[in-house]
Amino acid sequence: MKIGIVGQGAIGSLFAYYFKTLSPVLLVKNIDVPARTIIGLTRESTLLDFAKQPVHNPFTNNAEPYIFDFLLITVKGYQLAELISQLRPWVARQTRLVIVQNGMGGAQMLAAHFPQNLIYAGTTTDAVYASATDTFQISAQGRLDIGPLWNMLDPTQYAPKPCKHKTVNWQHEKSLLDSLLRFHPFVMYHQDVSDALYTKLAINGVINPLTAVLQIKNGQLRQYPEKVAALKKEIFAVYKANDITFFEQALSHAIDIVIEATSENWSSMCQDVKYKRLSENETVLGFLSNMAKSKNLYTPVITELYQRLRLLDASHSSASLANDTD
Q: Where is the Ketopantoate reductase N-terminal domain (predicted)?
């Protein structure tokens, strides 16, 4: 089975670590970038020194484009549009695309540009952070939730041709997917993954923006219960207005559990602001804000945080894009 991984950030490196026995090909902007190292929960260190190929033209020794069984896309939301333009000329129709990101909206963008490919969307509660240059630390082992995008979106948005024309060998498809996912220590497959994605969006929607603006560790949010409660309240109102199925008490508890479990972590958005990089504000608060606007819902807390982070992103954009090597 041929696996490609796009993105050498925390999540991309995590999947390279989990799938290391499959010898994944790393698709990068610059093949001269040093190999990443990841440190596991038992403190073992693994050098992710796999084959690298330029993302815009990954060719085999026969000068033919690689045909991957699975192409895992783990780049940040603001990188996706450029990535799609690089992938479209060479990605084969039989390659399955798997997108795992913090926010939402990226899977829909992929579906619009790759209508003939089978696309899976996922989210993970694994906690990984950059502990040094080119080094990542796994601080908590979580769960990978994954499912087919065609069961999540309306057929008018995405109905891949293999499904419409009933040309998919589902037994073979399940076998391939099982072969991939068995390397992750805890996987939950969903026929409709939307519940898991919206749960993760709510968790990220509370933790990431507040820690970014306040510049604090996740656990320090316990010192700001009013801010956490106000943001939860607005996100839950957005979900209710958009007919998202959830249990308010359970989702609130899930957010609190993640704050507790990752109390010593700096969120990715917090680190982005600290190091003057672009954040995933648009795919987290931006996505929630658009959901609110579609229902004419007043969300002052979401709006204020979104605008503050948007201004920070604007001031960081040129430096971040110039230095980005993921």
A: 3-149
> d(Cα 160, Cα 166) in Å, to the nearest integer?
10
Q: Which of 310, 323, 307, 311 is nearest to 275 (CA)?
A: 323
Q: Which residue has the tokens 């204020």?
A: 304
Spatial separation of the C-alpha atoms in residues 12 and 325, rounded to whole Å: 13
**Biggest CA-to-CA distance, the chain:** 61
DSSP letter at 166?
A: T
Contacts of 233 (CB under 8 A, 6+ apart): none
Angle at 123 between CA 110 and CA 31, to 5 degrees: 65
Greater model confidence, 201 or 8: 201
In the numeric block, the tokens 């072969």 are attached to 179
Quote the CA–CA distance of 74 and 16 in Å, as a whole number: 11
Question: How are beta strands 52-54 and 45-47 bridged, if at all?
Answer: unpaired
* Among 142, 144, 137, residue whose Cα is nearest residue 44: 137
Task: Name every residue whose Cβ is closer than 8 Å to that of residue 172 and which is 6 or more positions away in sequence.
Answer: none
Q: Could you give the 3-state DSSP secondary structure of residue 132?
A: strand
Half-sphere exposure of residue 132: CA atoms within 13 angstroms, side-chain side: 6
Alpha carbon distance 214, 210 (integer Å) = 6
pLDDT band at 322 (very low <50, low <70, confident <90, very high): very low
> What is the mean predicted confidence (pLDDT) over 56-83?
87
Residue 165 is which amino acid? H
All domains of the chain, ordered by start, with CATH?
3-192 (3.40.50.720), 195-323 (1.10.1040.10)
Residue 309 tokens read as 């982070």
Question: CB of 296 within 8 A of CB of 253?
Answer: no
What is the DSSP pairing of strand 135-140 with strand 127-132?
antiparallel
Pairwise CA distance, residues 61 & 247, whole Å: 53
2 contacts 320 by C-beta, under 8 angstroms: no
Rounded Cα distance between 275 and 305, Å, is 19
> Which ranges of 38-193 would DSSP assign to H, the alpha helix?
80-87, 106-113, 161-164, 170-181
The 3-state DSSP class for residue 129 equals strand
